Please model this.
Amino acid sequence: MSKQTVMGIYEAFGRGDLAGVLDALADDVEWDMPGTVPFCGLRQGRAAVQQFFVELMGAVKIEMFEVDAVIGDGERVVVLGRERCTAMQTGRSYQQHWAHAYSLRGGKVVAVRLHEDTQAQAAAFNPAG
Model:
């Protein structure tokens, strides 16, 4: 069931269904994406995660986003994937492989840690080139 919950998040994201993403999250979810680009940081609660997606979609054009593997079940699920994006403020693209780690409780996501290529992101967002 946990893999299905997590995969439902990616399916909703792919459809542009933010409400579907948020429905899978616990009210007090902790969403953490380390890095230096505008949408990075620690978010607490569904409203803060919603703001993450607003900032993300305002900052990048996602050109390719693919899930390669879903590992685990029960209360821990890791999703491996890759993407290609363009930073809107600079017009520079970046590609990256990523790992997203989920913790679940009672069928809801309670914590997410997004492990991404922060160096590639920072280079794409750097106005100095």
The CA atoms of residues 62 and 85 lie 4 Å apart. DSSP finds four helices and six strands in the chain. The beta strands are 25-33, 41-44, 60-73, 76-87, 93-105, 108-115. The chain has one domain: 2-125.
